[in-house]
Write a structure and sequence with these properties.
Distance between the termini of chain B: 51 Å
Strand content of chain A: under 5%
Distance between the termini of chain A: 45 Å
Order of helices and strands of chain B: HHHH
Strand content of chain B: under 5%
Number of helices of chain B: 4
Helix content of chain A: over 70%
Shape of chain A: flat
Order of helices and strands of chain A: HHH
Number of helices of chain A: 3
Oligomer: heterotrimer
Number of strands of chain A: 0
Largest sheet of chain B: none
Chains: A mainly alpha, B mainly alpha, C mainly alpha
């Protein structure tokens, strides 16, 4: 059953990849990439169960953290053109 | 045995929501509506699949890890979505509307939006 | 109050350490010591940075969150089915629009929970908050009559509790 789930995940990732390639705006691509990252987390967990190696779950936890930080960093870069924006006084970040 | 059947059902339901969400990513007209589809994948797709694996593995340390992943996804997904929406709005993307009543005229406005793509 | 929260944070970190290191059969003293030291240092740094407060360690919500979470999951499930129906229809029929909701929570943490709950349910995405005014993008305007959001608003306010923040 995990093989079926992994196949569904791969299909969904392909569809999201289509969106990332089609665009049209940068935000569509970021959204698609974030989505692919979420699916990667689940895929890592499913693969761990599929191969009987539950230690893949640790990788999934780490990837979930990295994925979130990465998305926020890319969005911040697109919005401000500067990853350090807001950490300096006198600049509004909200 | 019962646990396996329940796990099967949860995994398949999760896979259904995942593929549906991904399909929505392709079919829906603009970035804001696509966010709803992406949120679907993050919440129900991932949630049901991880819940199915929890049921399959029973009560052990794998379940703790799965619940940690699940909790983390459910906490971060809305924040990432919100950040995307806010960046898109301030980047000049106007939401697609049916009427095109000044609040944006759909795809053309979205293509001409100030975002680098 | 801060010290109390610091103790809670430390306890949570130690619990996560113990659960993730799978050390139940034979508790290795060295591993436990590593964990305790790391957690203590981390909590000490957090306290010195001044980030241990009501918002970062909201343990006062834990009891009521147990009641709120199942309701939220049920709401998420219902709205997922709704959005799935829209996506799987032969012709995409969306009527997106921006609507505004008023949040009745007193604290920023309460508004944060409300906005995140709205975003977590597919079909509605919070795009901005100014004071207590939430700007929400809805995928189908006609289905948003405000009753569900009012219900959620009421529940989040109840989750926030009576004590003054």
């Amino acid at each position: 059953m995990f093989a079926v789930t992994a196949a569904a995940l791969l299909v969904a990732m392909c569809l999201a990849m289509c969106r990332a390639l089609l665009g049209p705006t940068a935000y569509d691509r970021v959204l698609a990439l974030n989505n692919i990252g979420t699916k990667t987390v689940v895929l890592l967990a499913v693969l761990g169960f599929l191969n009987g190696r539950p230690h893949f779950l640790d990788l999934a936890i780490a990837y979930a953290l990295i994925n979130f930080i990465g998305t926020i960093a890319v969005l911040k870069y697109i919005e401000y053109g500067d990853l350090g924006a807001g950490s300096r006084p006198g600049r509004e970040t909200n | 045995m019962v646990a396996e059947v329940v796990a099967w059902a949860l995994l398949m339901a999760g896979a259904f929501f995942l593929v549906t969400g991904a399909l929505g990513m392709v079919r829906l007209p603009d970035v804001f509506t696509r966010m709803h589809a992406a949120g679907m994948t993050d919440t129900m797709g991932a949630g049901l699949i991880l819940a199915g694996m929890c049921v399959y593995s029973g009560a052990n340390f794998e379940t703790v890890r799965l619940l940690l992943i699940l909790g983390f996804l459910w906490f971060t997904s809305p924040i990432a979505t919100h950040a995307t929406a806010k960046a898109a709005l301030s980047g000049g993307v106007r939401p697609f509307t049916l009427a095109g009543d000044g609040s944006g005229d759909g795809r053309t406005a979205e293509r001409e939006g100030g975002a680098p793509s | 109050m801060t010290s109390n929260r610091a103790v809670w944070l430390w306890a949570i970190l130690v619990a996560i350490w113990l659960l993730l290191s799978e050390q139940t059969q034979h508790l290795e003293l060295l591993f436990i010591l590593f964990g305790l030291t790391t957690c203590t240092v981390a909590v000490r740094v957090c306290v010195r940075m001044g980030v241990v407060d009501r918002e970062s360690v909201p343990v006062h919500l834990a009891g009521r969150a147990v009641l709120y979470t199942p309701w939220l999951i049920w709401e998420v499930f219902k709205s997922n089915l709704r959005v799935a129906r829209i996506i799987l229809a032969p012709r995409i029929r969306v009527d997106p629009s921006i609507v505004h909701f008023r949040a009745s929570q007193r604290t920023d943490l309460g508004r944060f929970i409300y906005a995140n709950s709205i975003t977590l349910t597919p079909g509605t995405v919070t795009t901005g908050i100014v004071a207590d005014d939430l700007e929400v993008h809805a995928i189908v305007q006609t289905e948003i009559d405000g009753s569900e959001e009012n219900d959620m608003n009421r529940r989040v306010t109840a989750l926030e509790g009576e004590r003054e923040g």
